[in-house]
Structure formats: C-alpha cells, structure tokens
Amino acid sequence: MDENLTTLREFLGKDLVEAMIRVGLIAFLAFICVRIFTPFMGLMMWALILAVALYPLHQRLAQALQGRQGLAATLVVIAGLVLIGLPTFMLGNSFAGHIHDFYTAFTSDSVIVKQPGPEVAQWPLIGEKVYSVWSAAAADLPAYLQTLQPRLGNISRQLLEIAAGTMGAIFLFLGSLIVAGMMMAWGQSGSDTIGRLLRRVAGEQQGPHLHVLGTGTIRSVAIGVIGVAFIQALLLGIGFFGAGIPAASVLAVVVMMMGILQLPAALVSLPAIGYIWWAGDSSTVMMVVWSVYILVAGLADNVLKPLFLGRGVDVPMPVILIGALGGIATSGIVGLFVGAVLLAVGYKILMGWVDQDESVETALTSGEAATPEINP
User: What is the pTM of this model?
Assistant: First the structure.
C-alpha cells in the first residue's frame, strides 16, 4: 500500500508536471505553426483542390510525354493561365469599354430613355412605381440621377469593393494554379504522404478508403459544380452573342459565378429574353428561336448537375450537394469543396457505424440459428 502511494506521489509530483510541460510545448508549437501558415491557407487550399482535380489530366499528359512529370505539370499550368488569364483580361477590357462608352454618352447627354407605354402602369404590384420612375428618367435623366446621388455614391463604392475583391480572387486563383503545378510534379510522393497520415489517424482499414473518398469528392464537385457552371455560361454566352444582347461576355461570366454559387441562371436568362422582345431588332422568328435557346440553356444545369455531381463517389448525390451548399455558405468558394468532402466523410463514418452494428446483429442471429445444428 505504501509503495502504491509512493509511486502515485512521484507521478503527480514529477511525471505529471513533465507531461504537462511537454503537452504545453507541443500545443504552443502547433499554435505558432498555424499562426504562421494562416496567411497562406487560402492559397494552399486552392492549390490542393486544383492539384487533385487536375491530376488525372496531368497523368495522361505525362504518359504521352514518356513520364516527364515536371514538363506535364508546366504545360497544364501554362494552359490554365492562358485559358483563364486571357479571357479575364479580355473581359476586363470589354467591361471597361462598356463603362467608358456609357460615361461618354452620359456626359454628352446622348443617353436616351424611351417613354414607357401605358401598359406598364397596369403591371401588378409594381406597375405604378415602375411607370413613375421610368417616366421621370425619360423626361430628364440627369436631373433624376441627381436625386439619387447619395444612393448612387454608396452603390459605386460597393461596386468598386466587389471589383477589387474579384480581381484579388482571380490573382489568388492564378497563383494557386502555379502552386498546384508544383504539387502535381511531385504528386505521387504527396499522395503517399497523405495516405500515410490518414492511415495513422483513421487506421489501416479506413485510412485508404477515406483517401479515395476525399479525392473522388473533390473531383466530383469540380466537375459537377464548376464544370456545369462553365458549360452553362458557355451555352448562354453563345445565346447572348447571337441575340445581340449588350455586354454578352460580362453576362456569361455573371452566369458562371451564379452557377458556382448555386444561384439559378434564370435570374439572368429571363431578363435577357425580355430584352430581346423589348429591343425588337430581329424578326419574330429569330426572336422566338433565341428566346427558346436561352430558356433551355438557362435550365441546362437541372439536367447536367445530376449527371456529374457525385459521379464516381460512393456517396449519394444529395449528400455532396448539401455539403457543397453548406460549405459555400460558411466558407466561400473553398468551402464548396471542403464542405462536400467533410460531409461525405461524416456520412461514410456514420453509415459504417450503422452497418457494423447490423453486421454484428446478423452474425449473432445466424450463430443462434446454427446452434441447434451444432449441438443436436
């Protein structure tokens, strides 16, 4: 008894203090490492997502180049910079041109607003207000804008902040693409390291499965969300150009961003159809054709998303979609991928726990049923 008390006192007096000091030092070191790494968190997260999503393409290109991983990664990065950076520059140039043209027309008093028709006042709920505002702008646009000066100033500041944030996000994306190229060049060793880490955390059986699940979920979301948004923006962009809608390229990019944010493209396509009939620059047949085309293209995500989202992942599509929506609501665009991966992993762990209980119950039931045969 005395020996146990002596051992307990030694543990509480010396060993416990040393253990607490070690734990405290490890926690302090982990906190400092996280604090130092935090400014690069967004860059590295995007780079990891891009590397995982583009790695199959990189491997096929590397096989065509006789296994030269570095050259294949360089070509993928250059192609990405050209495909993203060049359209971004063209879009910015086009948008600046539209703003300059509008400003020139406004300062020279050449902006003409047509008088609204009497039927506008008959619109339900908003007809009278729209008619009065439209009539005031048509009668004297500069004087009407002067009445909105404080509100326009606030809107201008918000638009400048949004533009600055958008350009910052684009530069962050381009930088992440370069880092992703470095990751793809050493992709196999990086994948092995993550696999060892997951086996260490989740065990030898679950670790490899979680590794495959996380990789597949990122690629599924990249194709099912961003890929579908890009396809829909391309289809609607063709329709906007063909119908002669102003700033068609800007509207196409807006559609793509709305698709990534999981907002309906009808918010852009329906006003575009209204503009086609309001402008009336084409024949009735062509207006009907372009209206039907834009309407169908605006609903294309309802068909494409179930086909691509969740494809190749052993998780139901609604789980991936809910994870993507919840992630983007809490953490922005990066959360689109992180939320889907975390919810998919949580779903698999939950279902594994449920199936394990069912398998044990089945084994016990089958064992009881077999007992009379073994012991007659």
Answer: 0.63
